[in-house]
Design goal:
CATH topology of the largest domain: Aspartate Aminotransferase, domain 2
Structural class: alpha/beta
Order of helices and strands: EHHHEHEHEHEHEHEEHEEHEHHEH
CATH class of the largest domain: Alpha Beta
Largest sheet: 7 strands, mixed
Shape: globular
Radius of gyration: 21 Å
Bound molecules: pyridoxal-5'-phosphate
CATH architecture of the largest domain: 3-Layer(aba) Sandwich
CATH superfamily of the largest domain: Type I PLP-dependent aspartate aminotransferase-like (Major domain)
Helix content: 40-55%
Number of strands: 12
Oligomer: single chain
Strand order of the largest sheet: 2-8-7-6-5-3-4
């Protein structure tokens, strides 16, 4: 199989698995137990917290582990104080848009921040927010479908100067570009383990100590009392190891992905009627989303699957939904064109030969259509 869907999930790194196994086989103690067996496990969680915090340039005390990016995003939004108004960008992941919708039904005023034709939040859109002054604004760092990177540091600076709190969903950016909680200047940031070659079902919320987080789960003092429940120890250890490796290998992975993307985009440029979405914008080194005029994206994906290539149209959660991507729609792309979308998301183990093979198969399928 040629796997080109790393924004959906990544294969676990062998070194991550090796770090996790002792915590499934030997050190099974409860990290809250006071005896030595428990204390060893507690110390492994502490190490993982340091490792993930180091990757995002934050203090370990500012980070709590969650069951993934979805929970971190939900936690960030549901911590809004009663009556607080908030705003989210028009290109957020469903783990932001759906809790946002639910909060708006509960009476919180919700504003959607428009994006330009490349899917970027503009200064003009932020100007409007500065008039309405919501209490919290959520703008993702990098988009899961197009790979477009937002200038969160710049927007956060302006919003914070008006005392507006800022959250960023950094799930897709993590491990692909440098992410600094400090430099971005945000108050809240969501992370996920399985997009950086760590295990699924684990993520984190990073928060400024001035924030008051309202726990989603009650019933235990774990994670500073903000996320009750016995910790998913092996997954947390794995997330920590994946973060350590991502930090050490970031430059190397970036170089590899950029050179593969160049080969990919050169190959795509030869296909008549093909448009790369947000092609001119600053994007993640691994992501290229495109459409071929007149083609049915889902149909192409199925045919590529039969040939052994795994990739998707955009958000894994939306796959098979039959609806055009709301991210592309927000960028002003017609429903008809959005339905042609295919997303290639490369990973650290992909090689040039796989990209050439994909291009060859795609060209053959497009010319048959
Ligand atoms: N945010 C973004 C941008 C994502 O792409 C995803 C997963 O696809 C999530 C959040 C959810 O993360 P998780 O799968 O860890 O719940």
């Amino acid at each position: 199989m040629i796997y080109l869907d790393h924004n959906a999930t990544t294969p676990i790194d062998e070194r991550v698995l090796d770090a996790m196994l002792p915590f499934l086989k030997i050190f099974y103690g409860n990290p809250s137990s006071l005896y030595r067996h428990g204390r060893i496990v507690r110390s492994a969680i502490d190490t993982a917290r340091e490792q993930v915090a180091a990757l995002v340039d934050a203090n370990a005390a500012q980070l709590i582990f969650t069951s993934g990016g979805t929970e971190a995003n939900n936690l960030a939004l549901t911590s809004l104080s009663p009556q607080a108004g908030f705003a989210i960008s028009a290109v957020e992941h469903p783990s932001i848009t759906e809790p946002a919708q639910s909060l708006s039904y509960q009476g919180h005023h919700l504003e959607i921040i428009d994006v330009d034709a490349s899917g970027r939040v503009t200064d003009e859109a932020i100007n409007k927010l500065l008039v309405h002054r919501p209490d919290l604004v959520s703008i993702m760092l990098a988009n899961n479908e197009t790979g477009v990177i937002q200038d969160v540091e710049h927007h956060a600076g302006r919003l914070k100067a008006s005392n507006i709190k800022v959250h960023t969903d950094a799930v897709q950016a993590l491990g692909k570009i440098p992410v600094s909680f400090r430099r971005l200047g945000v108050d809240l940031m969501s992370l996920s383990s399985h997009k950086i070659y760590g295990p699924k079902g684990c993520g984190a919320l990073v928060f400024d100590k001035s924030m008051s987080i309202k726990p989603l789960l009650l019933g235990g003092g774990q994670e500073q009392g903000l996320r009750a429940g016995t910790e998913n120890v092996a997954a947390i250890v794995g997330f920590g190891k994946a973060a350590e490796l991502a930090q050490a290998e970031l430059a190397m992975r970036d170089k590899h992905l950029c050179s593969l993307r160049l080969v990919l985009e050169q190959g795509l440029a030869d296909i008549p009627g093909l448009t790369v979405f947000a092609g001119q914008a600053k994007r993640l080194p691994n992501t290229v989303q495109f459409g071929v005029h007149g083609a049915d994206g889902e149909m192409l994906l199925m045919k590529l699957d039969q040939k052994g290539v795994a990739l998707s149209s955009g958000s894994a959660c939306a796959s098979g939904g039959g609806k055009p991507s709301s991210v592309l729609t927000a960028m002003g792309i017609s429903d008809e064109q959005a339905k042609t979308a295919i997303r290639v998301s490369l990973g650290k183990t992909n090689i040039e030969a796989e990209v050439f093979e994909f291009i060859k198969l795609l060209k053959a399928l497009v010319s048959q259509a």
